[in-house]
Amino acid sequence: MVLLRITNGSFKGDFFMTTTLVIFTWNEITAVRKIWPQIPRDKVNEILVVDGGSTDGTIEFFKNVNIPVYLQEKPGHGEAYKLGMKKAKGEVLVFFGCDGNNRPEDIPSLIRAIEDGKDLVIATRFGKGAHSNDATFSHRLGNYLFVWLVNARWNARVSDVFNEFRAIKKVCMERLDLKNSYFDLELEMTLKAIKQGLVRGEVSTVEEVRIGGVAKLKAIKDGLMNLRCFLKEAIGF
Q: Which residues partner with 67 through β-bridges?
């Protein structure tokens, strides 16, 4: 059985579940122009963009290629996830940052992992066979610290809890009832998935160097925010 429900373009893949690719953007037109031709558009049923308020031509670029763009009314990276989930029609959601860090060729691998029975799949930058060409020392240290905390608390066997490049069944994401609005939503999603017993997996990836744009993550501020998220989920703090 092959699903042929089409939203954008011609669907030629061999996946059994309908998939929406949710692309995050915010003033990254240089990366968008390079990354867009690499997106495997024949492997998904729907593509939409969630934009944080670009003024550099990013919005116009996607409108010119007939991709719907939804502007965030509420600020925050976590709010972008929620808006994408709300607007998506697919049964599987793939979240993809279009700043050059994420590799478009890994999108089918995430979808395939969901097809193979996973509920949540994270593209790991620090697991076996994975690598990051972009993570700073503080970002690596932060991920290692939280990975250790999560694995120590729940024996979860995760290697990357923060990468936005991930896939999840829409029904599962809705059930998680995510509350956070900023860069703590990825951790919240991961922890709630563990606590609710979702079937999780990882796909090794290579994080490439950012193409243009400015990194929005602030190590100390967001680190403390994520620590609060961890304590809340771990001990109800």
A: none
How far apart are the C-alpha atoms of 147 and 210, rounded to whole Å?
23
Report the run of H or E that residue 93 belongs to, with start and end: strand 92-97
47 close to 21: Cβ distance less than 8 angstroms:
yes
52, 151, 175 from 112: Cα distances, Å: 29, 25, 22
Architecture in CATH for domain 19-235: Alpha-Beta Complex (3.90)
Distance CA 78, CA 31 (A): 21
Q: Which two tokens stand for residue 181?
A: 């609005």
Averaged pLDDT, 91-112: 97
Nearest to 80 by CA among 226, 181, 173, 176: 181
pLDDT band at 44 (very low <50, low <70, confident <90, very high): very high
| pTM across the whole model | 0.91
Structure token pair of residue 160:
């990357």
Nearest-angstrom CA–CA distance, 19 and 4: 11
